[in-house]
Specification:
Elements (H helix, E strand, L loop, with lengths): L14 H37 L5 H4 L8 H21 L4 H10 L5 H26 L4 H24 L5 H36 L4 H22 L5 H10 L5 H25 L5 H21 L5 H20 L1
Helix pairs in contact: 1-3, 1-12, 3-11, 4-5, 4-12, 5-8, 5-10, 5-11, 6-8, 6-10, 7-9, 7-12, 8-9, 9-10
Length: 326
């Protein structure tokens, strides 16, 4: 006979335990916020010291680029900070680098987008190669995305060429679209799982033809956004894939999105180069700083509260997006 003591009875939740978990969550968010705030504060001070006296000179005379080694040092330090945050959070570098170039370095929005596209393409090639070698890419999904994004990118570049890309109105358009995409990215960083569940409920049972058409449409939208702002292939593209392909593993969808981003950013970057919007010295300086930053961030990411960092980064992107709209 089994006694009462031998039977396991479910215990009611301990209020003190729940309070403990809540306290730990609040503490994690606080630590993440403090870390990101201090990181950006220090980076802003260093960049100002390195770059401020020469901020306007470079854009009044582009030939001064190679005469200001301190400017390249400031770009490299910016790459280090952005690479560190990318390694910590996994968020695409474009969400951070393009606004940084526009707001802190007064780089023209078109030149900031063009340079960041080639910078992003260079960094994504290595990640895409690893995913391809591991066999974690769904090439059908990648191909459908590219079917929409590549023509959309080419048409956007041709449209930019026909509308005198570097005039004041175009700069304002790029800045406004960039701000909106940043705000959407910030929302997805916080509510991605809720958006995916809502989208899956709205879509219902997957249907192959509809899924194929919507994947191509997703590629079109991502292609336009990436060409205009250098942002969109990460949080927006991946969230759409999660909704469209609920039965595929998340890691496989992320790998497919990363591989798709390589030709997309290369074509868009080449288009911006054709328009004269790429500063190769700037791209090189950013890469010098970002590569060790990504490595260091990846090593530190296992020790940092991921949820807290993502919330903090979402807050930063929101502030930057609102600042760009002002």
């Amino acid at each position: 006979m089994i006694g009462t003591r031998d039977v396991w009875w479910p215990q009611p939740p301990d209020p003190s335990s729940r309070m403990c978990h809540a306290g730990m969550a609040v503490t994690s968010v606080g630590l993440g916020a403090v870390f990101c705030a201090e990181l950006f504060h220090v980076s802003h001070l260093v960049i100002d010291q390195l770059h401020c006296p020469r901020r306007l000179a470079r854009h009044q005379d582009p030939s001064l680029t190679d005469e200001w080694p301190m400017t390249h040092l400031a770009f490299a330090f910016s790459g280090l900070i952005v690479g560190l945050l990318v390694g910590l959070t996994g968020v695409g570098a474009g969400s951070l680098m393009t606004p940084l170039l526009i707001l802190l370095f007064a780089v023209h929005p078109a030149r900031a987008v063009g340079s960041d596209l080639l910078y992003a393409a260079t960094t994504k090639v290595f990640a895409a190669g690893i995913h391809g070698f591991r066999g974690s890419v769904d090439w059908r999904v990648t191909g459908l995305l590219a079917t929409g994004s590549v023509p959309a990118t080419i048409l956007t570049i041709l449209f930019a060429a026909s509308t005198h890309w570097k005039n004041g109105h175009t700069g304002a358009l790029i800045t406004s679209v960039l701000a909106i995409v940043l705000l959407v990215t910030a929302l997805l960083l916080i509510f991605q799982s809720q958006v995916v569940r809502l989208g899956a409920r709205f879509m219902g049972e997957p249907r192959p033809r509809r899924t194929m058409a919507l994947t191509i449409l997703t590629g079109v939208i991502v292609g336009i956004l990436v060409t205009l702002t250098s942002i969109g292939a990460g949080a927006i593209g991946v969230t759409a894939l999660f909704v469209l392909y609920p039965r595929l593993p998340a890691s496989r969808l992320i790998a497919s999105d990363i591989v798709h981003a390589v030709p997309l950013t290369l074509i868009a970057g080449a288009g911006h180069w054709w328009l004269g919007d790429v500063d190769f010295g700037l791209v090189g300086s950013l890469l010098v700083g970002s590569i060790p930053g990504v490595i260091l961030g990846s090593l530190l990411s296992v020790r940092m509260p991921d949820r807290a960092l993502r919330l903090c980064l979402a807050a930063i992107l929101t502030i930057v997006g609102i600042r760009l709209l002002m």
